[in-house]
Amino acid sequence: MIGNTPVSEIMSKNIIALTRSDDLTRAEMLFKKHKIRHIPVVKGESIIGMLSYADLLKISYADTTNDEHDIEVVVYNSFTIEQVMTKDVLCIDSDTTIQEATEILAKREFHALPVVDESILVGIVTSTDLLNYFLKQL
Predict the structure, then answer these.
(1) Taking a C-beta distance cutoff of 8 angstroms, is the pair 7, 115 a contact?
(2) Domain count for the chain
(3) Which domain holds residue 108?
(4) Ranges for the CBS domain (predicted)?
(5) In terms of CB atoms within 10 Å, which of 33, 40, 60, 118 comes out highest?
(6) HSE of 118 in the Cβ direction (CA atoms, 13 Å)?
(7) Reduced to 3 states, what is the DSSP secondary structure of residue 22?
(8) pTM
(9) Residues 59-113 pLDDT 10s
(10) CA neighbor of 4 nearest in space, from 90, 93, 101, 91
């Protein structure tokens, strides 16, 4: 069955990550540069949180003003990565099946799962990865 494939087959292994010491301006730059919507926050090789582009939008007032850049700078400088990131992150391991990952994302309010083996972040699988996988099966 196609759902029994491990997520290691489709996960992103080239991980774009942030640390606690990074700022939100850097985070926004990474989101835009790499055209991604989720960035793990790490301490060494271990995940300590997850930042989504939606998290930035929640604190940004840029859409309500004509001077977007200045407002973003003020808002981004008012918060740290640690204040904005999700801290209690649900992780899966690389042997988790695509079906299991799909079931988790279908029932939860987030769209990315960090893949962790032996406390080390080894990848990330997103709802987009899963959709692309299922499209290839059709």
Answers:
(1) yes
(2) 1
(3) 2-137
(4) 11-68, 85-138
(5) 40
(6) 0
(7) coil
(8) 0.85
(9) 875 445 555 555 555 667 788 999 999 999 999 999 999 999 999 999 998 899 9
(10) 101
